[in-house]
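#struct-pred
JK: can someone run the complex with zinc ion? inputs below
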Amino acid sequence: MTATENNVERDLKTIALFIQLYCKCKHTDDQKQIVLLKTHDVKAIAKREIVLCEACHKLLAHAFVKRSHCPMEPKPACKHCPNHCYHPTYRAQIREVMKYSGKALLFRGRLDYLFHLLF
Ligand SMILES: [Zn+2]
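RT: done, structure tokens with the ligand placed:
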């Protein structure tokens, strides 16, 4: 595995954990399912089952595809990128997820996850 692939996997793991944390806290009443994607082995990447509501499942699928196909190398933080690749709807959602989960992790002292904030 190359360094680039490692970076992508690390980012995908962060995205998955951030969305799951957000979904768990914000979408408590929604029906949830284990996330299975045709494009990625989510469980292998996140090192655990990721369980999300339908809306967050779609967001995660979108984020995974976009991150895996990012043409920028090294990848800049998305907010500094000249080439915004996210669909505007998903972009607004992922920003909210990153903000919310980033704060939650900060309060829990999980700064390791914040080392490589994407957004
Ligand atoms: Zn959700």
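RT: quick notes.
The longest strand covers residues 32-34.
Residues 104 and 110 are 9 Å apart (CA to CA).
JK: thanks, will look after standup
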